[in-house]
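Q: Got a minute? One more chain.
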Amino acid sequence: MMAEFINELNSKKASLAIEIARTPSVKLKEMLDRIYAGEQPSKQPEIQCYAYPNCPFSTNLNCQSCYLAIPRAAALQSISDEISLKIGKLINETNFPNLLRDMSVLTSLMDRLTEAKTDLGKEFVEGYIDLEQLKFDYNIVIERMERHTQYYLEEK
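A: Always. Here it is, folded:
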């Protein structure tokens, strides 16, 4: 019985992976952008649906146990991880054009975080991201960018 349950669960995960692999790259990128921004709807506000609007389980009342469901918290955690990665890269980067590129990406991620705070509430976001530490780390990056910009301009 347990083996059947595990096999069914693995089968659903494999089905989703196959569906993702079959999705044309342009459509997949658009969908991932919507998921990343928290804009992919579902039947419940705290969940996003990979298959929306073509729900294969239209009679289900909620999405919590659906293998196609992506909790908003998962997208928020992904944004948090990417912000941490970019901050780490910016703190260690010495090439000015790379600093500008990574700062642009970090700014976009910070915009997504601001949207999440507006849409989901600061308290919800703080459940996944230490906003005080992020503010501290972000200020270090800003100071570093200012020093590198000044140095770069003095060289020219």
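A: The first helix runs from residue 2 to 22.
Q: Perfect, thanks.
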